[in-house]
Amino acid sequence: MSAEKIVADLASTARIAARTLSTATGAERKSALLAIAQSIETRSAEILSANEKDMEAARAEKMHPQMQDRLLLTEERVKAIASGARLVAELPDPLGIILRESTLPNGLELKQVSVPFGVIGMVYEARPNVTVDAAVILLMSGNSALLRGSSSAQHSNAILVQVMRDALATTKISPDVIQLVPSEDRATTKALLTARGKVDLVIPRGSAALIRMVVDESTVPTIETGAGVCHVYVDEFADIEKALPILINSKTHRPSVCNAAETLLVHKSIAPTFLPMALKALSDAGVIIHADATAQKVAEKFSIASTAATQENWATEYGVLEMNVGVVDSVDAAADHIAKFGTNHTEAIVTENKEVASRFIALSDCAAVMVNTSTRFTDGEQMGFGAEIGISNQKLHARGPMGLEAMTTTTWIVTGSGQIRI
Amino acid sequence: MSAEKIVADLASTARIAARTLSTATGAERKSALLAIAQSIETRSAEILSANEKDMEAARAEKMHPQMQDRLLLTEERVKAIASGARLVAELPDPLGIILRESTLPNGLELKQVSVPFGVIGMVYEARPNVTVDAAVILLMSGNSALLRGSSSAQHSNAILVQVMRDALATTKISPDVIQLVPSEDRATTKALLTARGKVDLVIPRGSAALIRMVVDESTVPTIETGAGVCHVYVDEFADIEKALPILINSKTHRPSVCNAAETLLVHKSIAPTFLPMALKALSDAGVIIHADATAQKVAEKFSIASTAATQENWATEYGVLEMNVGVVDSVDAAADHIAKFGTNHTEAIVTENKEVASRFIALSDCAAVMVNTSTRFTDGEQMGFGAEIGISNQKLHARGPMGLEAMTTTTWIVTGSGQIRI
Questions:
Q1: Is the pLDDT reported for residue A226 higher than 80?
Q2: Same domain as A192, residue A95
Q3: Residue contact B372–A416, C-beta within 8 A
Q4: Beta carbons within 8 Å of B57's beta carbon, 6+ residues apart
Q5: ipTM of the complex model
Q6: Residue of chain B nearest A212, judged by CA positions
Q7: How much of chain A exceeds pLDDT 70, in percent?
Q8: Which of A146, A413, A198 lies closest to B366 in space, CA to CA?
Q9: What does the pLDDT look like over A301-327, one tens digit per residue?
Q10: For the segment B274-307, what is each residue's pLDDT rounded down to a tens digit?
Q11: Which of A89, A245, B207, B289 makes a 20 to 30 Å CA pair with B176?
Q12: pLDDT tens-digit map of A179-225
């Protein structure tokens, strides 16, 4: 059977099954998630033994240790997956929310209501926890899930999907709302990305290369997640007591994630005071520094190593302890730099001046602007969403951290008593 | 200069100019629109004379009279374009609206605020009025407009853009927020569709073929507009007094538009009473009938001509006075038929039974469900939006009629006092 046919069949089965979700109550969807959580805990041994098969293969092919760690499941990690499902089950029902309501002069009653997309595809890499995390978020928001994970996690994904489907078989929700897309053949990914009309949305989760591939090749609507070249701008009116911890937290708290900062921009008026402290703190934290001419002079004066920042440096998402440092003339110049090199993810300003903060916000074009706080707060759980399926880096549909609500669309319900258009 | 370079330069100029929109107040954007409206009226003669050049070319190449009519501008039509701009200027400002607001336990203040996309491309066909209609909606929502019209309207579009830019030159908004993409070369369309990162959104407006091309070829996010195979389902609990006018209005009020109905489905219990009346009324209105076996028998009995509806018929958006008629066993069967042949646009149910209506709504997967009213009400102006840039036929971002609000995205503004992530 061709990859197109395989995916089309899975999508078609999933769409019919999705009706058991769209006609279910929030309480019924919640019960289904709790059943899934329970089964995952109960069948932990089976899950771990399937995962061991993937781990054996990974060791045999000498997978990078960091990747092996992502692939690995432990008893604790399985418990955490189940707990995650229970947390999602406790979230407010995102469906049936009346977003707008009005009565027209002709008596028609208009309601805009949140409804599921229908069938959503996930394309992701080696972490098997995504299989469950994504499935429960999609189910709770009323959508069927087509899961296309990595072939390196195939045994883990297969058992996790089986456990979830078995759990659903005891509920009012059809097990067919969760479908594992075979990962042996790369063609199934392509087939999923081009199943326009059959799949309503595809979300990539993983490396920049994976996201780029999905965005380039997909004819199904997608939500781009990921890349973040985030900036911290320390304004002339900054409180240095705040600026320093914000800078260090933004860069070093978890350098590998997309909301970590890559570039520090400092207003020229505060540079003489702030730059020496900042460079020393970064250097002490083990951060390699790429600096513009002004910042390099300061670094030299204090015997702090730095290289001259290139155009490529300014545009790089390091993901490790490296940072660009530059001096700018004004908030507008900072915004110009960010417009040129940023990726519209998260930008922070440190300032006590509200007008400057407003100007920075108006000139920024990103998912989140942080005023006097760390870039690391662009995060669904930190923002109180309770769950996150990814961080949207695009402007269409959802921007920034995506929770349950982002997995819904809307429908207009227009109720009349025989009105016709004149 | 290559088409890619032309479009990249226009987009870059438009993005810088967009700042004069994102930092402008609603009142300033409104003034800009009023200046545009005024200039269009004042310079009506120039506009008509440019349009005459396009009309001459159209006549020379024997363009279809209907297409010629779409291309034609008259003094009245120019006035209507100016009035349209004034209407948009009066609408509530869609920017800076606080969509969500909360304070986190750590004291961070979260606000989700509506902001412009930035640079939006429009790809459209021969109607020169779209040049102004689209530009003013985009400007009012804070976006720069890259306008790619048809080469057959090139003189009309050029003068309209010139008039709008000249009007902006007298305001605080940069004229560069409106850019005409050259239409002599087809390659500029392709360049616009692939200017990912430079253009934030592309919206097609025109024929099904144009929309399909944009959706297939674009790597820039797009919003699919258009196709509607809409159904009217007359339930067993229908009030026939309402059903008949709703059916006739849905089919015949303006058959060429996307919210016109193409298929009538009748519950078997009411078919003996309703079908004869419905078929007669359709026939009297000049509607050609394609029917299933049951409906054909009724038609024959009353000497009403019909052909046997094929699979292709059920899936066709006629756009003219033709309609499919079928009998179904239940509301679920109606929903099944619609799921198979519908285009997720607008579906109507006529019923006095609220539970059946709810079931129909839950099983429908479309932009708008009409309960006891005509499919023709899926329309931005009818729904009270005041302006419409198109009807979205997709689930991502906007669904159904799109007004100013649909041309905005959001940003999170997180304000702290030095908080860092622990």
A1: no
A2: yes
A3: yes
A4: B152
A5: 0.91
A6: B219
A7: 100
A8: A413
A9: 999 999 999 999 999 999 899 999 999
A10: 999 999 999 999 999 999 999 999 999 999 999 9
A11: B207
A12: 999 998 889 999 999 999 899 999 999 888 898 899 888 889 999 88
The answer as to whether A384 is a domain residue is no
Return d(Cα B300, Cα A114) in angstroms, integer.
Answer: 44
- Determine which of B97, B117, B344, B411 to mutate to test the interface with A (most A C-beta atoms within 10 Å): B411
Minimal-distance CA residue of chain A relative to B243: A418
Closest to B220 (Cα-Cα) out of A213, A360, A13, A215: A215
Q: Which chain B residue has its CA at the smallest distance from A202's CA?
A: B396
d(CA B121, CA B134): 10
CATH code assigned at B252: 3.40.309.10
Q: A210 lies in a domain? A: yes
Burial of B5 (0-12, 13-18, 19+ CB in 10 A): exposed
Instruction: Report the length, in residues, of chain B.
Output: 422
Pair A303, A209 in one domain: no
Q: Are residues B213 and B243 in the same domain?
A: no
Residues of chain B with pLDDT under 50: none
Which residues share a beta bridge with B233?
B265, B349
Please judge whether B246 and A420 are an interchain contact, meaning their C-beta atoms are less than 8 angstroms apart: yes
Question: What are B15's two structure tokens?
Answer: 């993005």
The count of domains in chain B is 2
* Out of A367, A374, A419, closest to residue B411 by CB: A367
Query: For residue A371, which residues of chain B lie inside 8 Å, CB to CB?
Result: 413-416
Residue B319 Rama label (left phi>0; alpha psi -120 to 50; beta): left
Contacts of B373 in chain A (CB under 8 A): 108, 414-420
Report CB contact under 8 Å: A396, B399: no
Burial code (b: 16+ CB inside 10 Å, e: under 16) for B367-403 equals bbbbbbbbbbbbbbebbebebbbbbbbbbbbbbbbbb
Q: Do B414 and A370 touch (CB under 8 A)?
A: yes
* CATH at residue A11: 3.40.605.10
In tens, the pLDDT along A253-277 reads 999 888 999 999 999 999 999 999 9
Residues B99 and B181 reside in one and the same domain = yes
Residues 6+ apart with CB under 8 A from B228: B257, B258, B259, B260, B262, B317, B343, B345, B346, B393
| Beta pairing partners, B225 | B392
Condensed to tens digits (0 to 9), the pLDDT of residues B75-115 reads 999 999 999 999 999 999 999 999 999 999 999 999 999 99
Q: Which of B371, B395, B419 sits opposite A415 (nearest CB)?
A: B371
Query: Percent of chain B having pLDDT more than 90?
Result: 89
Sequence-distant contacts of B221-224: CB under 8 A, at least 24 apart: B221/A394, B221/A395, B221/A396, B222/B193, B223/A396, B223/B390, B223/B392, B223/B394, B223/B396, B223/B397, B223/B398, B223/B402, B223/B406, B224/B392, B224/B393, B224/B394
Q: Are residues A92 and A34 in the same domain?
A: yes
| Structural domain of A290 | 230-377
Nearest chain B CA: its distance from A310 CA (Å): 21
Buried b (16+ CB within 10 A) or exposed e, B54-72: bbebbeeeebeeeebebbb
- Contact between A249 and B420 using a beta-carbon 8 Å cutoff: yes
Question: Is B368 in Cβ contact with A395 (below 8 Å)?
Answer: no
Residues B407 and B346 placed together within one structural domain of the fold? no
Domain presence at residue B339: yes
Determine the Cα–Cα distance for residues A295 and A289; give it in Å rounded to an integer. 10
* CB-based contact B373 A239, cutoff 8 Å: no
Q: Are residues A32 and A151 in the same domain?
A: yes
Indicate if B73 and B156 belong to the same structural domain.
yes
Predicted pLDDT at A291: 98
What's the mean pLDDT in A388-396? 91
Residues of chain A contacting B396 with CB distance shorter than 8 Å: 201, 221, 223, 396-397, 409
Answer whether B144's CB lies under 8 Å from B176's CB. yes
